[in-house]
Design a protein that fits this description.
alpha/beta, Rossmann fold, Ribonucleotide Reductase Protein R1, domain 1, five-stranded antiparallel β-sheet, 13 strands, 20% strand
Length: 342
């Protein structure tokens, strides 16, 4: 802040294609320019600044003249995913998070494998909590859902079943929504994120829509990420439903909800065990003993393969960027004008 003595700290509360909304206090929101100074000077329009280096909802920035961002303050946490497309890019979902609420409905939306994928991708973004909404839904079986997520819960991840429309039921989330904390809601469309937000707010602020009767799939009602102050003093970030959940290549499988399988894999006879038909495979032995589900192991192997492929793509991108940076440096010259060595 010493470089910008006249600047004021503000938090990004909304991010749009046309710019940002920032706030210095609850209920305050001011539009600022779409391309801040530090990106304009760095050549963002030429693609030299990665998208994840732009400010996102939850970031703290320095603003001068009430409308001009001059710097971004360091992040203490972030959640992100790999963007769709052939070229490696990251998409930042939210920054400076304390709790990640992974929301899934107790209707046909319920999918333990998708929840595991979310838990892998949101690591490093705060404490994960699985929130099973629609506990009041006809046919909802919260007990069976908890059993299906038993291996996740055994790793210390809280699993809560709530009726998102009932304030008394939603009060189960209050321990993770203390004054000064920030939580983010992630989950598929129709899982009940906006309904949950409205109940926590005590007003109908977020637009909601019923899921389709044919398959319980949701309709996109949240179109952008927004940070919302809650009456209890916490901040909540609602996000649009995400169809693609691709690893960035930076994930740690043990930290991302698979510590039990990683521990088993360490006891396999062969270090490069694929956990298929190899002798002495501790993972297969756990499956045969009934202490680990084959579906969870299959999901672990799939996510590990995706993570490793993303790691390789990320390394290629970094190598290409470093090469481009070196080639753009000016060639040193002797005093007489002749080119010298780099």
């Amino acid at each position: 802040m010493a470089a910008h003595p006249a600047a004021q700290p503000r938090r990004v509360v909304e991010q749009h294609r046309s710019g940002y909304l920032v706030a210095g206090a609850p209920g305050e929101a001011v539009a600022v320019e779409s391309l801040p100074d530090w990106l304009r000077r760095s050549g963002y329009r030429k693609g030299t600044i990665a998208p994840e280096d732009r400010a996102a909802v939850g970031d703290w920035v320095l603003v001068e003249d009430g409308k001009r961002i001059v710097a971004m303050l360091p992040r203490r946490s972030a959640i992100k995913r790999a963007a769709a497309g052939e070229h490696y890019k990251q998409q930042l979902i939210a920054a400076n998070i304390d709790t990640v609420l992974v929301v899934c409905g107790l209707d046909s939306d319920f999918n333990p494998r998708r929840i595991e994928r979310y838990l892998l991708l949101v690591q490093g973004g705060g404490t994960p909590v699985v929130v099973l909404t629609k506990a009041d839904h006809a046919g909802a079986d919260a007990g069976a859902a908890r059993t299906a997520l038993g291996e996740v819960a055994a790793l210390g991840v809280a699993v809560l079943a709530v009726n998102a429309r009932d304030p008394a039921s939603v009060a189960a989330l209050h321990p993770w929504l203390g004054t000064g904390t920030t939580a983010v809601l992630v989950g598929s469309s129709g899982a009940g994120k906006s309904t949950l937000t409205n109940t926590l707010l005590g007003i109908e602020r977020m637009r909601t829509a019923a899921v389709r009767d044919t398959d319980d799939r949701g309709r996109h009602t949240t179109t952008h990420r927004a940070l919302i102050p809650l009456p209890a003093g916490a901040c909540l970030i609602d996000t649009p439903g995400m169809r693609e959940l691709k690893p960035t290549g930076e994930e740690d499988l043990a930290e991302g909800g698979f510590a039990d399988i990683e521990a088993l894999a360490a006891d396999c006879r062969f270090r490069d065990c694929r956990h298929e038909q190899e002798p002495g495979c501790a993972v297969r032995a756990a499956i045969e003993a009934g202490t680990t589900s084959p579906q969870r192991v299959a999901n672990y192997l799939k996510l590990r393969e995706e993570r490793d492929a993303a790691t390789a793509r990320r390394a290629d991108r970094l190598a290409t960027r470093d090469s481009a940076t070196r080639s753009s440096r000016p060639v040193p010259r002797h005093p007489d004008g002749r080119p010298g060595r780099r």
